[in-house]
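[retry 2/3] Efflux transporter outer membrane subunit: previous attempt timed out, resubmitting with same input.
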Amino acid sequence: MKPIPHPGRRTLALLTPLFAALVLAGCASALPAPPENAGVEIPARFSGAPAAAAAAAEAQPRGAWWLAFADPQLSALVERAGDANTDIQAAAARLAEARALLRSADAQRLPQLGASAGVGRQAGAQSTGGAAPATLGTAGLNLSYEVDLSGRLSQASAAALQDAQARAALLQSTRLMVQADVAQAYLQLRGLQDERALLAQSLDIYRDSLRLTSRRFEAGDAAELDLARMQTEVSATASELLALDRQQALLRNALALLVGDVAGAFSVAPGAPAALPLIPAGVPAAVLARRPDVAAAQATVQAALARVGVAQAAWFPQIVLTAQGGYASPELGDLLRWSARSWGVNALLSLPVFDGGQRAAQEQGAKARLEAAVAAQRGQVLTAFRDVEDQLSALRLLGEQSQVLAQAVESAERASHLSDVRWRNGYVSQLELLDARRNALRQRRNALQLRSAQYTTTVMLIRALGGSWEPAAGASRIAPAS
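[retry 2/3] Efflux transporter outer membrane subunit: success.
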């Protein structure tokens, strides 16, 4: 008589592979966390910042930073670009895709239920009652669930979560980039409009002088050389006006593209000069906390780290539990009878033995991608510090240059006025008068161009700081140019 196995021994034999899988999964080595801020030592303050450090960025209100320029037209354009810019729309679509992939990765950790039905011709099956070929119909439900012993599914879900967070940060980075581009193009266009108005005013003065010189030439009181010089000055100034018109057309078309409009049908009306805000630099650690590109690089590192865990988990066993329930019958008419019911429960344990080095190569590739992500994060952190330092230094030097240039403008205007008086009284030649006027015009244009550079550099500083700066109530501003 064959001995009956002990129930406890049978249970132990069934659970032995499961215990072995748990032991192997527990042997998985934890990955070391990447160094904070990619190993970059954060300075206490920016070298280009004032001696008295501004309050930390996180302690200041956040919001629409472009409102600091107090220009309604600029605010309307930035908000319009946020809705219609194609780069922002594409980044938002990539974020939606990443979130869908996250939901897909999370779904892999849940039981999977499906329905199936089929008809087949087979022989030798017990359900057919013999070796003769017979038709077998089936209908039922299938349930499967993978036991995540090694953490492979959870690591894949974590990687997808970090990918989604990286895409969200990249969307914010794209939005900030578009906002800054709109502000820069708009402020440059306004600067060209002011410069054109100055040139148009000078052209009117030159034309008045040309008419006066023409009358004096006809009366014999002026030489033909003086008339030719005035005609040259009028034509050269008109040519510069056309060059400014060309630059304005290019900037208007660039703005139209940024706000999602058709080039040619877009225009910007002249208006009052925008305010030039004073931007507190804050502390370097706060800049890293709010720059979206740095946040995206950090999330990419975390995703790469999780994928290394996925590659390592591929070495360990996988246990899949399945269950089927339904009906099976050789007669389709009897398929749904209670007597045709069938069911089954299965547990599948799979353990890799030999794969020709495929898993090792995948793990090495995942580690290499992690190293590349850490290097990219380090580069992003260093770039963030450089961007802020560049703009702080530029604003400081532009401010000093503005003070010196204001004295040059005042002196050139005074010299032009005195030369005009002396020319009308016959003390100086027309050539000296033209030189004085030309110098005064050049200094005033330099002042306008310097002012435009201050505007655009301020926008670049806000972008370098992460774009979340907003002036508190009563924040100081530089008065707009008169």
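[retry 2/3] Efflux transporter outer membrane subunit: The radius of gyration is 38 Å.
[retry 2/3] clearing retry counter.
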